[in-house]
């Protein structure tokens, strides 16, 4: 037992969609690799003995009343270089936003020092908000993408990082694009190899991701080559898919088929693929995603600005599509998945009820579209783990011990939740955490069995 | 000059809809009544002298770099007794939510000790989030509503408080309704008189508000009597108006006219009237509101759960209707107007773009519906002041000095905003504050020239 850490705590997680499981005062037994070896419940015959020996050995972690563990959140879509512009310029049209703000900003990451400064802060900010795993878009610059992976290693976050490919000279500005298709593919391969090397020193995992920005910015040759690289190294793939009216139309005009079908034909869909937005995926696209095991990074805040519509989460879920949540920094302003959880629920209700009060109720919305906050919680945790095909997002044997410790108690704390001895069932406590927690209430964050952040 | 406090600071406000004004390093001269007597800009010939004498007299307040003053936010719709259930049960239909959770909870406020405990916490929580003025619904119990006013006085918040009237035995549960119409009106009048008395000891103002819950819960006689009381004492009026498909239909069936017209005919619309939600107000209702000076409390988070639609803010604004923002605790889960500001923008964009991706763009949304974050900021400040017909919400001579001090600087602070020397125009700084500030960044709150909250 000596090499195990024992963490005694109350915890919530959601192994099954729409359901929560409350683990009351359990003992998490975490091995030296940061993996949960066992979860011992209070009624287990060994409970007291394991507790006593951990106390004696000095490897017991306990928490005061009012503390709850949640699985670390999994953010499936972050444009790391866009962090400096989070919250600004969101009133501009997409084209201006990209060309006047985003692309000039991303071009700055040719500077490794700038990259290091921004990425160090971003990783910290995401950890502070309980996010333990992130699927990152970098910029086109492989070396600054490696800086992002190093920031993850240094701070203990699990990071999946992609060097962005955007090679089509007709679609991308000269100051910010891959210098050629060959170069884009060669740099991607070099990046993959460097990342596999870095991963050796990262117990929590840092993984390379094949990352065509989206079909409109890439040549056919690049897309084909990236599909082949992903297969060769068996690595993750990410891109944007069917995000807006414009993107949807663009791909249809170019290939005479949908975005999802085109991605599939380039070998870019599969169990390790995560596609952002997908608001215009449609039923055929959904079936293709379900068949291939491709997941959606649902970014509800960003979709309100650039997605032209709401992702029909409830119906996609029924079709068997894997769905997780993404902040989409900086198309989405917030670095917090809590904010996106809430917006996922709100947007789903607005899809169900409709938005235009001049229309009669039956024409206004789309019935049976709402999801609950507990379902959104599943997307931010279990769903994210499934999307990435990694053993994360749940408190479960053989899964990584990734957790955020939320303290809702009012004792000497500046930010508290309403209590008054009411609405304190297990599910209500979790609802209050998800709806009302402020960043300040996230007291600790653990990744792969290691405490990587504390704010007390 | 001796009796003046001098506050030297950078400040943002929005005297004109859609525009911001940045006051750089100005001197706010605030008199003993907490009113702004003057705002001295750096280029004014007296600037240095006023600064020097304030320093000498020891009545100068300064702030470190990275601090910005915003007007205190004005929350136009809070159900104070519902604070204990914020964030819970939002997945239930409105009828169950009211009858199983809300009404039983509100009935508990017959207990003054319980009222005192909850209201003390609620006022504190709202102040922590920069909210300096609140238009509160209480419960049916006059004495516990007076406890709410006392909590405001004790903590220095400006509170407008209504004893709720719901007298119709056919529409309200026996355990939670006014015992008779006469009693409802007599209690309202007693409450008004007590509040006018309490107001004597509250420099920031605590005001009585005539508060029929909404038309469906009141008899004709009560509505008429309340209109008369409001006129007799020249006090504020609040209620709900055209909130949902159900309410809209109910009133139409009962009176053969719209909710707004019915309220008007009972003498309940006017310059001091604020009506919550109004999602189904329609163009005729909007014109009536504009004519009478009646304001809308726009509650974008709550509307996503119970409003069945989005308030068409942009078009109502063009019709000249006064609009401010409300959290609608606990139909809205969040005690923060920051969250509602952001949702106001998001909801407006979803109204413009539509929500159902299976429809073509031209049928999906309603053109020209979006508002900007700067326009939403106006609603939370200047708009709220206009709605209440009080000199608040702007930094302006003869206005109350109500401010929140937001510190975005990274020096030794746990929560910071992205900077990196980019996107730092005045408007971009304000956008970042509005989109990214956490409660922790609100370092001080001032009401009527008095510092009523600090977190440092």
Summarize the structure.
Two copies of one chain form a homodimer. The first copy, chain A, is α/β, with parallel strands linked by helices.
Could you explain how this protein is built, in words?
The structure is a homodimer of 456-residue chains. In chain A, helix 4 (142-155) runs parallel beside helix 5 (181-198). The first copy, chain A, is of the alpha/beta class. The two termini of chain A are 29 Å apart. In chain A, strand 1 and strand 2 form a beta hairpin. The first copy, chain A, folds into 2 domains: 5-71 and 393-454, Urease, subunit C, domain 1 (Roll); 73-388, TIM Barrel, CATH 3.20.20. Chain A has helices at 47-57, 94-107, 112-128, 142-155, 181-198, 220-233, 245-255, 259-265, 282-292, 300-307, 313-318, 337-353, 361-364, 373-388, 426-436; strands spanning 5-13, 21-30, 36-40, 60-61, 67-71, 73-79, 131-137, 158-165, 206-212, 236-241, 273-277, 295-298, 322-325, 403-407, 442-447, 450-454. The model of chain A has no long low-confidence stretch (mean pLDDT 96). In chain A, the strands form 3 sheets. Chain A has an 8-stranded parallel β-sheet. Chain A has a 4-stranded mixed β-sheet with strand order 3-2-1-4. In chain A, strands 5-14-15-16 form a 4-stranded antiparallel β-sheet, covered by helices on one side. Chain A has 15 helices and 16 strands. Chains A and B meet through helix 3, helix 10, helix 12 and helix 15 of A and helix 3, helix 10, helix 12 and helix 15 of B.
